[in-house]
Amino acid sequence: MRDITGGVCAPEGFMANGIHAGMRKNKSKKDLSLIYSKEPCIAAATYTQNKVKGAPLIVTKKHLKDGIAQAIICNSGNANTCNSNGVELATETSELLAKELGIKEEDVIVASTGVIGQPMVIDPFKEHMHELVAGLKKDGSDNAVQGIMTTDTKPKEYAVEFVIDGQIAHIGAIAKGSGMIHPNMATMLAFVTSDVDISKEMLDIMIHEVVNDTFNMVSVDGDTSTNDMLCVMCNGLAGNKKIVFKDHDYQVMEDALFYICEQLSRDIAKDGEGATKLLTCKVSHAKSVWNAKAVAKSVITSSLFKAAMFGKDANWGRILCAIGYAPADVDVNKVDVHLQSTVGNLYVCHNGMGVEFDEEFATKVLSEDEIIIVIDLNDGDYSATAWGCDLTYDYVKINGDYRT
User: Fold this and answer.
1) What are phi and psi of 85, to 5 degrees?
2) Is residue 282 packed enough to be buried (19+ CB in 10 Å), middle (13-18) or exposed (0-12)?
3) Percent helix, strand and coil across the chain, each to the nearest 5
4) pLDDT tens across 307-329, in order?
5) Helix and strand tally (H, E) in the chain?
6) 271, β-bridge pairs
7) Of 81, 93, 187, 214, which is the active-site residue?
8) Which of 100, 111, 291, 360 pairs as cysteine with 133 (C-beta 3.0–4.6 A)?
9) Quick one: DSSP state of residue 64?
10) What is the bridge-based pairing of β-strands 68-78 and 278-286?
11) Is the pLDDT of residue 121 over 80?
């Protein structure tokens, strides 16, 4: 497996585009994106478990009942959530795109991101659908990722090439997410493309396995969005023998998908609203995977610990506090904790008790933009990793006037 360029257009048969359609006031910002496959795709998705769901998710879930899709359309600037005509708008958007592309309406995945509860009209879609489709191109992934960004400061896209069943295959992806990030069976917004031939049943199993250990282990602020969604489309143009079992080919593809999703998860955490540091919490020797995950997420979601990391304060007591209230079976008298960065390793806790350390060295370790929190529970054979970011003044500033 190797990294390549091209994003969602890296796999055979995919094109993309992104334009400004008027949903965002800033005319220099793209706000409408499209990903299209020349062949129908096997498709699967995961969705937010927030009880309040954006209308596009309702429509997409209906469209994907047959496991087939050929296009993804996404707007930014308006979440199309909590609108009385939301489903109608998402449906009409699908109809407009299907007509322009000459495909079935049911083969359109529709998504939105932006402010919740804002009135929305169909006009920008009607007026710009032809322009959006006409601009589709093989190197259009960058335009597409620009069109789905909201408070993101950096585009998030990856692609890899690998060999499966003797054939060269690809997976590409774009994602957005910076705030309101605490996913539960979902991923902010992530669109993944592949030319691997795989059955719907196997793809559905695969994305849930991968999401559970990547996007579901990310938290910026503890808020689960109403519009979170991960969609994967596979058009089979790589020419491999169709994956219908959990065999070697399944594992090769899953490893590639996991790599892509892990990179995107790290990028989303690092680009958290106002963040200055990526926090990676690695938990080892837990009694179960559940315990390991619960501890890792408890630590990276602790507001007090996140604030300490912003202040370069090695206040390890906040880590123990977060471990203590995690919904996990943990013997706190066995816990060891290290804080690491490119500067070095800081040992702060042994068997649940403090270890003397140099405060000046601690400040240097915590001054880097990536901090690793290593927690050894010394009580089992299981491990987990979670990603988060520090909590800064700018997070409050960004969200204090997000709508206005």
Assistant:
1) -105, 20
2) middle
3) 35, 30, 35
4) 999 999 999 999 999 999 999 99
5) 11, 15
6) none
7) 187
8) 100
9) G
10) unpaired
11) yes
Residue appearing with tokens 């992934």 = 141
* 139: Cα within 13 Å, side-chain hemisphere: 2
Burial of 385 (0-12, 13-18, 19+ CB in 10 A): buried
**pTM given for the model:** 0.95
Asked whether 252 and 79 are in contact (CB, 8 A), the reply is: no
Cα 323 to Cα 27, 246, 289, 346: the distances in Å are: 46, 35, 15, 19
At 347-376, the pLDDT tens digits run 999 999 999 999 999 999 999 999 999 999
Are β-strands 278-286 and 229-234 bridged in parallel, bridged antiparallel, or unpaired? unpaired
Average pLDDT over residues 192-206: 98
The two structure tokens encoding residue 182: 């605490």
187 has catalytic annotation: yes
Region 162-185 average pLDDT = 93
Q: Exposed, middle or buried, 353 (CB in 10 Å: 0-12/13-18/19+)?
A: exposed
